[in-house]
Hints:
By secondary structure, this protein is mostly beta strands. It is built from no helices and 23 strands. Helix content is 0%, strand content 53%.
Amino acid sequence: MIFLLLISCFIIRGSFNVSAATASMENQIYDGISNRQINVLYPNEIYAINNCTFSNCFATGNGGALNIKVFNGASINIANCTFTNCISTANGGAIWLDIYAGSTSTFEGLIKFKNCTGNVGGALHIKIGGINSKLYINEMQFQDCYSTSTGGGLYLLNQISAHAYIEQLSFSNCSSLSSGGGTQIISESKGFIQINQMTVEDCQCINGNGG
Length: 211
């Protein structure tokens, strides 16, 4: 089952959740939204976020702008999006992303994070697990992001035979309190991660565990 709804470009403010009939966000500007819930839970269901800008987002829960769950063979595609000044007092200053049970998440084009803050994962927190679960990242840039725990820009946990393929990551002036000033990447329980290119400049960990 594939749902598709295209929405023209306008500025959206405030908090809201995705309805069952909404399957895409395209060419939109989101200013001040909070912890938008996106649940893609059914086999062959596809959700797309394309060419959107997220600014000044804040949440006390996981994911300052977006809280995304992709399960049961579903897919989400995120392309050419920018996240600026997004904050979560929990994890994932801009995005919290869970990928499980044979699902796929793809980041296409260029994804930018600037001045985002979270606990675990200053800008982006990703957990992926399960056989046939896959993560694809083309290019991500993290600038001036901060974690109050681990992974100043990105926290990635890959486990239970999941696969992650990353083409290019760059971190500039990112920091964390505990470990991984730019990023913390963990692979366990036969998780597979391939990273082709990573650039890190002026990043630091306050406690000294991997600037």
